[in-house]
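Hi F.,

I've been meaning to write this up properly since the lab meeting, where we talked about keeping a consistent format for the predictions we share between groups. The idea is simple: the sequence comes first, exactly as it goes in, then the structure tokens exactly as they come out, then a line or two of notes. No screenshots and no reformatting. I'm using this chain as the first example so we have something concrete to point to.
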Amino acid sequence: MERWKILIADDEPKIRRGLHAQIDRLGLPCEVCAEAEDGEIALEAAERLRPDILLVDINMPFVNGLDFIQALRRTRADARVILITGYEEFEYARRALELDVHAYLLKPINVGELRRAVETAIDQLEVSRQRNRHFEWAIAQIGNRREFLREEFLRDAVSGRLEADEIREFRVYFDFPEPERMMLMLISTRSSAAGEKPWQHTLRQYALQDALREGPELRYRCLFSDDRGNVLLLYDAPPELDARLTEAVHAALGGELGLTVQLETEPVASLTRIAEAYDEAMERMMNSARLSPIVEGAKAYIAAHYSDPNLSLMEVAEALNVHPAYLSRTMKQELGMPFAKYLTNVRIGKAVQLMRDPSIRIWKVAEMVGYSGGNYFSAAFKKVLGVSPADYRMEDKRK
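Output, unedited:
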């Protein structure tokens, strides 16, 4: 029978000895592999011995129990932590459950409660390990269909059929890298001939694969299709390659195959949010198909000049040789929002992309997207996304 390893971390020698003796008397398939008198020693022992269950005091020198658990989770998300605390820290320990603490015990330790906590931890570990064995077996059976399954996975992900936990799990199996700048390109094509033969979809895929091999070098790329028959390209590349990649796609499908090509590109904050990126790109594609040349021109002008803090409706109207009132009215009719709101949405969308680079300070992001003052930027950001720029960046890091 497999024996589970337990680590005890408490700054009181008497408590450590008592817990060690009680665990030995429980008669469960577990054994104490190490004791630690402070959080720093406990972290070193946990990394070296990889215990399955940890009994951790909330008050320890150097690294307290909560900081210890947070550090442990970076490498041992599967370990079960039982928190030990005095009565006066009861409410504080309750908040520690957010760190996925398995249970907490109040001093002095009740043997019955200790037994229940360790038994349930072992039960969960056994279930988790058995599930992992089944998963590994399944992966071994389907390894020869890896590329096909990756495309199926991405198709399900963009359609919203997968939960975030499922996406994270399969992301590991399919070896998706940690992206520097992940983008999703939605490619739609139309042929002048009536109807499309089944082989034409395959031909588009082959043409794009050839274009990608001969085109700009990307850090990562994966071609797949959505439920509507569009081709999707998930890629990781610096911004300066976007234009060259777009040209390569148009050349492969428009020049060589004679198709009418329409495409939209959207940043992907993380793989768990790929469905959001797909929906944004699809909405823009559907809307742009109905836009007048005036509104298309306004969008293009705004895309090129949004970083100018003085950009105005008057300037855009003059560039397009139309009256400002006509442009504002037309934009509201076709885009569902007036000039000012559309400009704000563009700027905040660009800001979100820039904020994924942690080296760029928020005040610098504000300047880069056309805001001369941080307060104006923060107010606009919160109005569009419902949170402040600082809170959004913290949430994005957690994801």
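Notes:
The longest strand covers residues 182-190.
The mean pLDDT is 82.

If this format works for you, I'll send the rest the same way.

G.
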